[in-house]
DNA sequence: CGGTATCCCAACCGATACTG
DNA sequence: CAGTATCGGTTGGGATACCG
């Protein structure tokens, strides 16, 4: 029998919708780009490869844990390359991959919109907050 | 005296860096766009105004709480308008504002990149995960 | 130098129940 | 119909300490 309660059917619909959302390339990209330190890391690497330590000093607000995790995720996605530079002491170079570099124009579009419209957003927020409750 | 310990100086640097990151328009936009339900809500509203109930049925995976919170944040940012439609029972129309509509081309660029490159990302992830640990 | 490992708090988010 | 309120589990992310 395919008899199901209304609650069961709703749960199934919810689940399949959630799966589609999770699988959607746009949502996956927005999710990644929305990670707290991803935008700024890509921005810095856009200017050229950097050592791990240089990245740390460039983004002192990011904890070591978060910086490393961010870089690992980007590496796993094929957007960033990680290269160990032999020597004493050893160094590690991070750089955008060719794929990662194709993201720069996208980020530029986002930055362009943001800088052009941030004042409008702030104005809207002030109006909203000042609104009679 | 301006004497400070090294730890104090590092803490100050971290704090000012954090403030700059939080104030950066690009980061603020990425943060908003990265919210779990923002992309999909904007996508649906891009096709025209929708009643609250229509949005709920369009995105059954989002809980009522999250859908409402998402819409409130977008309304506060001036990206979405909320219009109560009198009647019995009352209805509420949600729509992109003119400002919100200017975000659609940006979202289209993101979607374009994502759909064009999602296969490369998935391939990179498989390679990374299959890599000798 | 470039990381891991661990702990812990805060924010996020869903489920459920209730309301004008 | 379109919410609000509350609770509780899960995740994100920082601090600290330690390691090759």
How would you concisely characterize the structure shown here?
The structure is a homodimer of 133-residue chains. With 133 residues, chain A is mostly helical.
How would you portray this structure in words?
The structure is a homodimer of 133-residue chains. Chain A contains seven helices and three strands, in the order H-H-H-E-H-H-E-E-H-H. By secondary structure, chain A is mainly α. Chain A has a single domain, classed as Arc Repressor Mutant, subunit A, CATH 1.10.10. The first copy, chain A, is extended. At the A-B interface, helix 1, helix 2, helix 3 and helix 7 of A face helix 1, helix 2, helix 3 and helix 7 of B. Chain A binds a DNA duplex (20 and 20 nucleotides) through helix 4 and helix 5.
* CATH hierarchy class name of chain A: Mainly Alpha
Domains counted in the coordinates of chain A: how many?
1
Instruction: Note the overall shape of chain A.
Output: extended
Q: What does the largest sheet of chain A look like?
A: 3 strands, antiparallel
Distance between the termini of chain A: 52 Å
Query: What multimeric state do the chains show?
Result: homodimer
The CATH topology of chain A is what?
Arc Repressor Mutant, subunit A
Note the beta-strand portion of chain A: 5-15%
How confident is the prediction overall: mean pLDDT of chain A? 93
Features:
homodimer, Arc Repressor Mutant, subunit A, 66% helix, 3-stranded antiparallel beta sheet, mainly alpha, 133 residues, DNA-binding
């Amino acid at each position: 029998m395919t008899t199901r309660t209304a609650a069961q059917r709703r749960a199934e619909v919810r689940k399949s919708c959630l799966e589609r959302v999770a699988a959607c390339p746009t949502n996956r990209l927005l999710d990644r780009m929305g990670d707290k330190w991803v935008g700024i890391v890509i921005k810095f690497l856009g200017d050229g490869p950097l050592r791990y330590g240089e990245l740390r000093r460039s983004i002192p607000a990011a904890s070591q844990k978060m910086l490393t995790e961010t870089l690992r995720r980007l590496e796993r996605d094929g957007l960033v390359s990680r290269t160990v530079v032999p020597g004493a002491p050893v160094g590690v170079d991070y750089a955008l991959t060719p794929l990662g570099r194709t993201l720069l124009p996208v980020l530029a579009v986002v930055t362009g919109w943001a800088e052009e419209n941030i004042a409008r957003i702030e104005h809207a927020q002030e109006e909203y907050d000042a609104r009679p409750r």
